[in-house]
Amino acid sequence: MVLIQIVLLAALATITVALVRSTADARHQAVRRLLIGLLGVLAVVSVLWPTGLTWLAELVGVGRGTDLLLYGTVVAFLGFIVNSYRRSRELESRIAELTRRLALDEAGPPRP
Questions:
Q1: What is the C-alpha R_g of the chain?
Q2: What is the pLDDT of residues 13-69, one digit of tens each?
């Protein structure tokens, strides 16, 4: 198995685990911010040193730097989808709870 296949499978497994695990803590936010920062640094490095991306691609077993960039983009996009789905589910739960509370508050006390 080529190194890039192992890396991509590990990334996909991580995204899958993130989909089923709770992430409402500060540690998750810190990790997300670090990954976003790392992505920014990698983007700047790949623009300033495009041959470096090709070198890295060959190092992990991909033929071209553009292919490596595509694989990374797909993994990042899947991570974004997972994050958006989780946030949407959380917001739906909050809205449902608020709707229940509002309905109970507006109903008032039961009539005798």
A1: 21
A2: 777 676 666 556 777 777 777 777 777 777 777 778 888 889 989 998 888 888 888
Euclidean distance between CA atoms 86 and 92, whole angstroms: 10
Residue among 78, 72, 63, 60 nearest 17 (CA):
78
3-state DSSP assignment of residue 1: coil
What global pTM score does this model have? 0.65
Element housing 110 (H / E): none
Yes or no: say if 24 and 80 are a contact pair by the CB < 8 Å rule: no
Q: Find where tokens 């997972």 sit.
A: 82
Q: Which helix (H) or strand (E) holds 69?
A: helix 65-107
The pLDDT of residue 93 is 94
* Domain ranges (residues) in the chain: 3-17+25-106
Residue 55 token pair: 């070198």
